[in-house]
Amino acid sequence: MGGESSDVRFACAPVALVVLSPDDVVLEENDAFVALGLGTWRDRRWTDLLTAGDRIVHETNVRLILLRLGHVEQVAATLRAGGVRVEGFLAYRMLDDGRTLVAFTAADERRRYEDELRAARDRSRALSDRLTCLARMSSALVRAVSREDIDEVLSLQAPDVLGVETAACWLVEDDLLRPGVARIDRSEAHPAWEVVLDGQVRVDGDAQFVPVSADDRVIAVLELRPPVTDAPAALLDSVVEQVGAAITRTRTTELALAHATRLSLTDPLTQVPNRRFATRELQFRASQLRPWAVALVDVDHFKRCNDVHGHDIGDAVLMAVASRMRSAVRDSDVVARWGGEEFLVLLDDPTTAGTTCERLRSTIGNHPVAAGGTVVPVTVSIGFTVAGPGEVPHEVLRRADAALYVAKRDGRNCVRGAEPGALGWEVFAPEVVPPAGRTG
After folding, report:
1. Counted domains in the chain
2. Could you say which DSSP state residue 368 is in?
3. Using one digit for the tens of pLDDT, what is the confidence trace for 385-403?
4. What tens digit of pLDDT does each residue of 2-19 get?
5. Residue 118 neighbours by CB distance under 10 Å
6. Has 391 been annotated as catalytic?
């Protein structure tokens, strides 16, 4: 055959091979040919193995095509000897020295090969389809801007990628959470919590729980039903990796958005809510079917403070006023900077509005503000009113502003309230206000 290595390859080839002389005598046969059960045919005529019909084809067609093209492919034939018949296909190739190499593939072997080839093609096509689905899911995860988006993408597209019926993403927070869908408390016994603790894939009944990790900790758990069986491990790893990246990215975005939102609703100087936030709260409280109270608080003679002591001291006064007011009201109440030296206070309990406003006035006025080596006496004037259920915020603020105007007219450092009356509203001095102690 042309060398020792070639001889070895010929002898050990998985397909049945023979070498023919120019006059069709078998010169060599390999082990696979002998294994067909036809016996050894060395030094015997090849055509004696063929049926009469196949012999005619060989002598009239195969030889002519070999001489012209040098090879013949896919010739159906039946080899028979000693009562053994083997159906299959022959392929001929002319060698440089005039000999002919013949390969024979048994029909059942060919069918098995074709079945395997079809199965491999089907697997390849299925994998290609899943990779297409994975690419589509990857694009959707990149576009996800919230944790709800991630759960929706996973539930809609992961089944096509992994060959499962359902897929869900549990986020690890104080509880296991599917935003807007469900929550699993830490006290509940659940396989997902076990995955969070040990970081290992777990199969429980008809569900598979897969950890999603970032920075060496489990940040989410995928719940797949039924467990993944026919998807390559690399495909599942890719889904897990992309979900983890999406969760990390959206959490970063959410934190940045929350920080930006907080800044947009917070007064940068006093660090209390700003007018924008207070306006939202006014509208919310007006939509509730219960009474509430609002107070407008104005720092007395603030322009004079700025003119005499400078704006740095003026800023320190505003920060101190905001801080003292915040400490004098309930956690559910809102203290906001309304503009300049004016603050707005939203009170949940309207029955104690007058008392609360007096507490605000005294908390601020009884203690001068020390800043920049200077001690500055500070007082405030307050106007408040109680809003009825469904009352328009604009009208409520008009009443509070009218009460504040009267408080300033009456000498400042005092509290005045306004309530609906015969002339639109009436301003009054709450009984909790002490008769003395005002400054002009």
Report:
1. 3
2. P
3. 999 887 899 999 999 999 9
4. 556 567 788 778 889 999
5. 10
6. no
Q: Give me the count of residues in the chain.
A: 440
Q: Which domain holds residue 13?
A: 4-112
- When the pLDDT of each residue in the chain is averaged and rounded to a whole number, the result is 89
Helix ranges (DSSP H) in 329-427 = 353-365, 393-409
What is the pTM for the complete model shown? Answer: 0.53
Give the whole-angstrom CA distance, residue 317 versus residue 425.
Answer: 33
Q: What is the CATH number of the domain that holds 374?
A: 3.30.70.270
In a domain, 103, yes or no: yes
Q: Which of 112, 129, 161 finishes a domain?
A: 112
Same domain, 161 and 296: no
13, 17, 22, 26: CA torsion to nearest 10 = 120
Residues 348 and 393 in one domain: yes
Amino acid at 3: G
Q: Is the dihedral of CA 400, 404, 407, 412 positive or negative?
A: positive
Structure tokens belonging to residue 117? 């080839």
CA angle at residue 35 from 33 to 36, to 5 degrees? 70
Of the candidates 281, 341, 342, 358, the residue annotated as catalytic is 341
Token look-up 């990390």 returns: 248
Specify whether 291 is located in the same domain as 422.
yes
Longest dimension (CA), the chain: 137
Q: How far apart are the first and last CA of the chain?
A: 122
Q: What is the DSSP letter of 62?
A: I
**Chain segment 346-389, per-residue pLDDT in tens:** 999 999 999 999 999 999 999 999 988 889 999 999 999 999 88
Q: Are residues 150 and 241 in the same domain?
A: yes
What H or E segment, with its residue span, contains residue 198? helix 191-198
Q: Which two tokens mark 343?
A: 């603050």
- CATH code at 234? 3.30.450.40
Q: Half-sphere exposure of 81 toward its Cβ, with a 13 Å CA cutoff? A: 16
Residue 312 belongs to a domain? yes
Given 89, 112, 135, which residue is the final one in a domain? 112
